[in-house]
Amino acid sequence: MSMIDDLLQQNKKLHFSLIDPDKQAPKDAGEIAKICENYGTNAIMLGGTTVRSRKLVYDTVAAIKGNVDLPTILFPNSALAISENADYILFMVLLNSLESKYRVEEQAKGAPLIKKWGIKSISTGYVVVSTSKNPTTIERRVKLDKIDIDDIEKAVDHAVYAEKEGMSCVYFDAGSGAEKPISNEMVQAIREHIEIPIIIGGGIRDGDTAKEKIDAGADVIVNGTIIEDERELIRGIIEKIRNY
Ligand code: 1GP
Q: What is 3-242's CATH topology?
């Protein structure tokens, strides 16, 4: 059982707020986290595709922990983004990466740090789905075995693989700022085939869309981009999730 299962026993569904340490000063990240906490988010995730400074992640986690009581969860793009003061880490394998760097190499560099620092690990099968005409940042940076928005069978195969490997959750991500989120049909098909928690993120910008993903079987909704540029919007999303 991971911390996500524990949280799901207390709440029907969850909302995680993703803050990119590269996008603002640590003090501002602490203030943003406070706003998200006041709206009712369940955890603060920290990560981004460009993060390269462990110190910046450390300072950002410290500022957030100084301001809110929520769990902090690392969402690292590499071993360099692992910081000892975080509570949890999504210890991810990017299942549809064609680069071993994102399937095993960064994980092997990071694992000893996670162990040494006692960060609680949430084993996660991470899958990037291509939903947008213009590639998202992660699609531009990582060579992927592309999964198109309607390639439901391939998505399900990865989800079942993650479950059979003993991972504690899957995270299907359309990528930060995606033009469209992952389809309801894909979420539903994944739900029909696995029992572990399903995290969905990328391109979700309103409460009705978030609710559709939850109706389809998602357990956790992640918002990142709108927290940076239209923060008020997450209030409506979190309301739908908390009242589910
Ligand atoms: C990206 O799933 C997260 O990895 C969040 O996506 O920035 O589009 O909310 P957005």
A: TIM Barrel (3.20.20)
DSSP labels for 107-123?
A: HHHHHHHHHHHTPEEEE
CA–centroid distance, residue 67 to ligand 1 (Å): 23
How high is the mean pLDDT in each 10-residue block of the chain (244 residues)? 92 97 97 97 95 96 98 97 98 98 98 98 98 95 97 98 98 97 98 98 97 98 94 94 94
Q: Is the sign of the CA dihedral 141, 138, 65, 36 positive or negative?
A: positive
* Closest to 174 measured CA to CA, from 195, 192, 150: 150
Q: Which atom of ligand 1 is nearest to the CA of 226?
A: 9
173 C-alpha vs ligand 1 centroid, how far in Å?
Answer: 7
136 lines ligand 1 (CB under 6 A): no
From the list 181, 125, 134, 178, the residue with the least C-alpha distance to 156 is 125
**Does ligand 1 come within 6 angstroms of the Cβ of 42?**
no
CA distance 28 to 19: 10
Q: What is the identity of the amino acid at 193?
A: H
Q: Is 132 in the pocket of ligand 1 (CB under 6 A)?
A: no
Are residues 178 and 132 in contact, defined by beta-carbon separation less than 8 angstroms? Answer: yes
User: One-letter amino acid identity for 65?
Assistant: K
pTM over 0.85: yes
Rounded distance from Cα 16 to ligand 1 centre (Å): 10
Alpha helix ranges (H) inside 68-181: 105-117, 137-141, 152-164
